[in-house]
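thread: overnight batch results

M.L. [08:02]
morning all. the overnight job finished for the chain we discussed friday. pasting input first so we're all looking at the same thing
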Amino acid sequence: MTGRHVLEHKGKTVILADATQATIEEGIAALAVIRQLAAKHSPGTALVLTDVTDFVFDDRASKAVLTTAAANKPYVKASVLVGIQGLKKIVVMTLTRVTGRSFVCFDDRVSALDWLVEQ
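M.L. [08:03]
and the structure it wrote out:
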């Protein structure tokens, strides 16, 4: 997990929710920062990459993800997920159903970023 929450890719700004190998508390804290960053964007303009590689969800983390995704919905143009395997797929299905948002999943950040900045 990095301390960086914004990055540039091909000239576009991307909000990075990096929860790779994070503890539950670190992941929830990163989501709080992401919510604040997305809210600074004009509606429908934010590009968001969430990387949950090697992150273990529990009920608190799942609730924080749902809350953040719902809060960010007005600001997000497109959102991608990296590291979605196993039971995390159930979280994504729930996230999509509850928030009405669409999430595209990728195995690696480069592919995710390339797709995201083309949206």
